[in-house]
Amino acid sequence: MEFVDAMLEDLRWFGFEWSEGPDCGGPWGPYQQSERYSFYRAALEKLRAGHFIYPCTCSRRDIQAAVTAPHVENDAEPLYPGTCRDRQFSETQAPARFAWRFRVPEGEVISFTDGHCGEQAFVAGKDFGDFIVWRGDDVPAYQLACVADDAAMRITEVVRGADLLVSTARQILLYRALGWTPPKFYHCALMADERGVRLAKRHDALSLRTLRERGETPEALRQNWA
Q1: Which of 34, 69, 72, 107 is the most buried (most CB within 10 A)?
Q2: Backbone angles phi, psi at 21, to 5 degrees
Q3: CA 165, CA 192: separation in Å to the nearest integer?
Q4: How confident is the model at residue 94 (pLDDT cuts 50, 70, 90)?
Q5: What is the helix (H) or strand (E) element at residue 173, kind and residue range?
Q6: DSSP label at 190?
Q7: Do 102 and 133 touch, CB atoms closer than 8 A?
Q8: Any residues with CB less than 8 A from the CB of 11 and at least 6 apart, and which?
Q9: In whole angstroms, how far apart are CA 223 and each of 130, 191, 217?
Q10: CA dihedral over 123, 128, 129, 130, signed as positive or negative
Q11: Cα separation of 47 and 178, whole Å?
């Protein structure tokens, strides 16, 4: 909770306000993801019952090494080559550790209107492949957790960075498979350094706390970002 409290404090300093959350409660709690496991498990079972997902034993290294796994521009992962897509596991043959992967409708165009970036369209199987919804360590992956949380909390508008545009296409497929209505999306431009490289932890980008300790003001940071 120490780090959560620090993040909330920094967000307040920056100028954000919220009416519900882990610090103030609200009607759609709990607000700690560690306490929402049952929501994610229920969504997983619904996907499994609808045959939208399949078990996958491939590691990241396996996928990287696959000759048939082309890389997609601006995406962190190569396209999944479909190694486990048609494999059949019986109850006795099931591996000890595997992930659940969503089977995308190859060739289908997933389109949506973004509040900032306008009309968007991504081709399943080309711009993104079958993706993980439940990890091998029995933890929900980002795509499923995000959709399950937003649906359960009645979220109507999602604002996030433009680097997640393709994730929206994946999540729209999850909303459809689960029978839920997706929210509206607004993907904003990313903050960048003086060279135009987007700020990220892997590039040792400065945290909001560090900028604050250096004497930066919320007004100046918001102006630079705008």
Answers
A1: 69
A2: 160, -175
A3: 18
A4: low
A5: helix 165-178
A6: P
A7: yes
A8: 208
A9: 39, 11, 10
A10: negative
A11: 7
